[in-house]
Task: structure prediction
Amino acid sequence: MNILLRKSSLPIVAAVVALAALFSFGSAESTPTATAATNADAKVSVAHFAPFAADVDSTAVTVRVDGVDALPNFKYGQIQNDVMLTAGDHQVQIVAGGSVAISETITVEADKEYTLAAIGGANSNDLMLMPFVKDTTAPAGDNGKLFVGHLAPFSDNLDATKVDICTDAGTPVTGLTGVPYKGFTDPYLTLPAGDYDLMITVAGSNCGTVALDLPAIRLGAGEIVDVFAIGLLNEAFPLSVASTTGFTAVTKVSVAHFAPFAADVDSTAVTVRVDGVDA
Result:
């Protein structure tokens, strides 16, 4: 099978909260729009998101590219960025337990960036390679871009894998409801720079049944971030978040003043300074 990394042919327009960001969900047969990178060759992030064994150590595989063992002892949850490939066709094989579990031919183009993720292998979901073309075009103005992918095969029923993305306050994000396994945003969400505190909930639960409370993400102006939901609903492979780009997680802190160091309350007034800034 030849996997051509190309533009999606299945756009769906939706609004995200009040930000009016345009996006759609792709499928395993479609990939986000590609844009020019700065490499002479194609740059690939290889990710192991396939919880196909009883525990993480047992998911160890060797990623073989054009007959060469490129990533030995590659385990679930691991990501290898900056794998450079010349433009054209390449045979990618996943070797598990000495046998070839996956063998695919991928086609990449020069000056583009990709994510190639091994997924599935649990709950009767096929072990497979799923390719994505990264959007590397800088967002305009004080905006950032966010990619969200659902690669968690926690049920053998596609409908049962559907989730809603909700704000931490319990409001469904318009257009990000009923997202199935292998669903992803296409194109990337273009959002104003800022902090985004979201959670993954069971579809149709009115944000009441939380599957995963995501870390708050700080999206900077000009920043492009990807986030993948991976794992199962068990102890060995808990539902979690992975990223090939990395992201800044925002931690909420409650600050309290319980120090009665002065003659009266008014005289205990202080300024709390964080990283040199009066907060």
